[in-house]
Amino acid sequence: MDRAADAAVAVGLGQSEAAVQAARLQGRAGREHALESERRVAYTQFLRAADLFVRTVRELPAIPHESRKDLLDQKVTGVVEAQAGVAVLGPPAITARAREVLKQSLGLEKLALRRAVLRSAVSALEDHWCPRDAEICEDPHHGSAFAAWDLLARWGSLEDEDRWAQLDFLQFVLQESHALTMEQIDQVLDVANSVVCWDLMMMGGWLCDPLLERFQAVRDEFADAACGSLGSPVI
Description:
Elements: H1 2-59, H2 65-89, H3 92-127, H4 140-154, H5 160-177, H6 182-192, H7 198-202, H8 210-230
């Protein structure tokens, strides 16, 4: 009877230990599942914030000048806040890629307002080119629109002395193009006083857009890494 009782106790202890171990494993699995779900939400929110920010940068030239800064600040703040969520929950490899996306976002933010002024002006000038045969066009406004467009395209490559010498001419052809208001012309001239990253801001349309291409590459690297860590698409 003693041996039977000991055996029963042993079986009972074994079952208890198995139940405790199973509960631990179930609890661990539950915590890991919860963490994965939280990470998925954080990664998705970060990608959405980044995509919304870059969409805003693309659309900024068509937005009224007085509204651009507040809108840009709002969208980049969204990226900063969403990146903080990734930093709290993500493993080091993912958080490092998220920081690169944030770095590209902040770099793009620094140029976005100046870029919008130039893109808006270039678009308006292109709309005021001759709608027929430009080579035989005698309308001075059409010619001035093209001259202003061409000068802006070359502005960053001019020597400092040449650029300052051409500043009055740039103002003249902008005015004569009848494509921009005086306020818009003042904005272009203000941007023209600094040529930092000029080519990056001017390129676009049928040309490449290195600023946005670089952002997109870093963004896609984060998305791929996030999907790989979770085993399924994030967004």
